[in-house]
């Protein structure tokens, strides 16, 4: 048996490694157009934050490690055609398009990922308007950022705010523009957003409720970003907004959704049962049967493993939902989110009620580090559907615990009767959740009587 994986980013690599562990005799071929696999698209941030000395270090796996597992890896090779009827993939070595190669498969995993949104507003073809995600794009962007002094970042989601945070030591003047009325709109409710904005540094200027309508420039380089109500001077523009799936090769072979994502069933099979799609290629369920396009590494890793297991075990593992669980550090504050916010939940057919509490570290060390936690429950079923926190200290496992509770559809009673450890020497973050669950239980009890 042979499985071909087209795309060597996080999801494709996770699928390849899982296949080899579960089915050692399976022939696995990974085709990736870049020179790297598992490239971390936020490596620019890691570079400016001094975690990396060179962008070439920004990868989680390398071809040699996969080849040692028995996986055949072809980097700098690009798929040019997929023939589902003949079960074949056509591809070529980068810069050698005339030499077309072909491989047959028993199973195919589509892991081509996404590309940053390409705007058509730059009708003058001005320089210094860019996006970055791949290693090659990041190398260009790094040089441009280092040379620029006044930068406009389009997008106040994680990509844009994390970049603004990473540039703290670079003494840049940053203008962050977003058409919505709040940063991190999908992830944080307004009261936590307000507290995050209390830490906004003076070199970052937010322009919310603002739509970019075009650009102007001199000598072929951008000098202004034009908004509906003002113009922003700049010498570099970076688009930091959600990507689009790289599904162009599939137009005549696989059923696609209206937004270009690949239509899949619960087992991540496409309209061709021999073909699976993962990661940024698909939309995933948030809540109960409400689908959203999510470009998160965690989602790519999860779907890559599930697709591989379903190939090995004849579709026994359905992919039920993603909680879009995230963790980040922006402007010195740790942010964790999972599931739905109270403000977004009604759009997913929930009647939400949120409970927010501010705590201090429970440990006996008495350093009183602050954390603000919010849990969101569905009023009808009383089950947990979302959670968020802002903290002045690392508390990464807390959001994973909240995500697990959301997936298990836990109610306040379920949370309060869970067996959590207690140790007087360390902070027991489960107590935060239990305290809020007590408030929720009291609220629901009063509603019933």
- Compute the average pLDDT: 92
Q: How are the strands of the largest sheet arranged?
A: 3-2-1-7-18
Structure class: alpha/beta
Integer count of domains: 3
The CATH top-level class label of the largest domain: Alpha Beta
3D structure, described in words:
Helix content is about 25%, strand content about 30%. The protein is globular and about 70 Å long. The chain folds into three domains: about 1-35 and about 40-115 and about 245-310, FAD/NAD(P)-binding domain (3-Layer(bba) Sandwich), CATH 3.50.50.60; about 120-240, FAD/NAD(P)-binding domain (3-Layer(bba) Sandwich), CATH 3.50.50.60; about 325-449, FAD/NAD-linked reductase, C-terminal dimerisation domain (Enolase-like, domain 1, 2-Layer Sandwich). Strands 3-2-1-7-18 form a five-stranded parallel sheet. The longest helix is centred in the C-terminal third of the chain and has 19 residues, at about 430-449. It is an alpha/beta fold and about 450 residues long.
